[in-house]
Amino acid sequence: MIHHKGTPLPFSEKADVRMIAALTLIHFVGDFYSAFINPLIPSFVSHFSLTLTQVGIITGASRFLAFVVQPPIGYVADHYRTRFFILGGPLMVIVFTSLVGIAQDFWTLLFFVCIGSIGSSMFHPTVAGMVSTYSGRHLGFSMSVFNMGGTLAFGLGPLFISAYVSRYDLAAMPWVMLPGLVPMVFLYFMAPYPLSEGLKNFGLIGSLREVFGTVWKPILMIWMIMALRAFVSQSILTYLPVHYARLGYSLVSIGGVISAFTIAGAISGLIAGHLSDRIGHKPIFYTTHVITPICILLMLHLPGPWIYISSFLTGFFALAILPLGVALAQQLAPKGKSMASSLMMGFALGTGGVLTPVTGKLADIFGIVPVLNWIAVAPIIALVLVYYLPKSRF
After folding, report:
1. pLDDT per residue over 237-258, tens digit each?
2. CA dist., res. 285 & res. 218, Å (int)
3. What letter would DSSP give residue 14?
4. Which end of the chain, C or N, has fewer beta carbons within 10 A?
5. DSSP class per residue in 312-374
6. Distance CA 274, CA 327 (A)
């Protein structure tokens, strides 16, 4: 194990709770502000008269820049020991996401969202890659705790921003950056330095070969599973708020639905991480892929207060495997943990998110509910890939 200032320490089976807490706090702060965008989509639609295709462009661009560009950042992070990414990234998210409320048109709104998304892409691979350094023998659970920070942020962020904007309007959003700056001061003194993973003498292609050369097939399968699940989750989180707004639900109610979805994922991620350390990951992958489609269909068709319960159940099963996919990739590719993390948290989730404009275009033609009915079937397809995953434990 490595001390936060870089001093080698003997390996310990116990996780370094202080360092895991610092990494989790970085994850929470950055994702708390990133979570503002989806619940505000109905407000953006009414304020800027957006089409569903434009909504998909905003979401797709955000997902692309927040996730798909993570691999090159993970590559740089694996080469250099700097805190620029893990502290500068959250600052960009805090500042530019808070500015979306004063955008004057669609293109300015898109610009602010994109810059904030780039900030998100900066810290995710580096911070996630550092978790295994401090996790001891508890990688699955430690990664789940780390993932909980982000998932909980995506659960609480919508509740906060929907209530705030409902009371003060979009124009007051710049003020919300202030509370985010407080923990950043604390993290400046507490956050550990990332470690160079010995890839300085390799170029990009050489690094990829060194890290993934013998394990590229299982890494590819994990990536495909994660990308497909991200496409399902992002389609739901992007277009259900618009659907519920058309049905007459308030912005606060819609924020509650999104929060129920994501908070459930935080809970299930912890449970899944705990179980994976004991029984392995494949039983969890099988279970969640079978139950998720049922929950999505319930979420789409149950009326009234049931939307909160069905949203919770959908998030519980749809998001449970995220920390397991990242932990499994790190286990298979220990020479490039940031790069492995960036593929699963970044490129896979971003690829799924980038496809949301396709969902939007189809929804413009056929309607939101019919399109999401078909998307609900997607996790069943991924069961074939789950079958071929390696049978290892964390």
Report:
1. 888 888 888 888 887 888 888 8
2. 14
3. S
4. N
5. HHHHHHHSTTHHHHHHHHHHH-GGGHHHHHIIIIIIIHHHHHHTHHHHHHHHHHH-HHHHHHH
6. 12
